[in-house]
Amino acid sequence: MSKITINQLHMALSEANSIVLTVHIRPDGDAIGSMLAFYEALVGQGKQVRMVVDDTIPEKFSFLSYADSIQSVDAFDWSQPVDMLLVLDASTYERIGRVGALCSAPIFNIDHHISNTEFAQGLYLRPDFAATGEIITDLCKKWNWPITESMGTSLYLAIATDCGFFKFSNTTFNTLEMASHCVKAGARPNIISERIEAVSSERLELTKEVMQTISFYKHNTVAIISLERKHMIILGDDTDGFVDIIRNVDTVDIAILLKAESDNSTRVSLRSKGTDVNRIAAHFGGGGHIRAAGCTIHMPLEEAKAVLLEVI
Ligand code: 5GP
Ligand code: MN
Q1: CA-CA distances (angstroms) from residue 55 to 3, 72, 81, 181?
Q2: Which of 34, 188, 219, 281 has its CA 20 to 30 A from that of 143?
Q3: Looking at the CA of 268, which ligand is closest?
Q4: pTM beyond cutoff 0.90
């Protein structure tokens, strides 16, 4: 069994009592928002639920309810019995880090990535949905599970951050409809945007420096912005938004953010207006969606840039 229907997912959840929730490493708004909301929903259904992530949780998500209940892999009590490991927003087994090896329970996966490798025993996949948060909202609606104000806030954040606050091509009627249910439940779009988009003056100073790295290739259809080691040391895990600086340039089809993760490893974020960047990311062992994907190239930043430009 790999792909499952909504009813099979419902049945599997009703049979599980003790559930561990996890999401992908370098968790983003969709991962964290979906997990926190589904945590609350499952607790509301009388389940014993715990959350574990094999990475640090970016500070900007700390205002969400239950964010302080997310445990690190090291603090987590792995000896307690678990009926189901429920993986949200992660498309490969590797993307959940050490949680996969540490938890022996059957794995279920709720995801929206077209590149999903079907690693779970039960996969509820909706590549037609902009965000995992959109799936979770839809599930709660269809199952008549109440969406509280805090769930609405987490789910709105999840949906909005994965579709560029309703600007990207993955935004559909359903995306907006699910977001409207979140607002009905009490989510405040302006407050959420303020929290997520707030920048310090120091960060803006750094952005001025990072903007000097912007370069154009292939008749200005490809733009690259780079976070070098010195930038990464200051920024840590908070690198959202840099690729957005270049994606709207009128001639640009593919926008690329390169991050010098270490002297020998470069993280790549790809965005496009038309080209299938999931295919480019897959070439380097990554994945994602047609117009937003990522991968890691095990080379220093400048070398990674060169091999990437060869593949495009
Ligand atoms: P981002 O550039 O925001 O990190 O990621 C863009 C999209 O690609 C997200 O949907 C993310 O889940 C996916 N993605 C990013 N990096 C990887 C990767 O290394 N492997 C896979 N399979 N997907 C990735
Ligand atoms: Mn997502």
Answers
A1: 27, 7, 23, 30
A2: 188
A3: 1
A4: yes
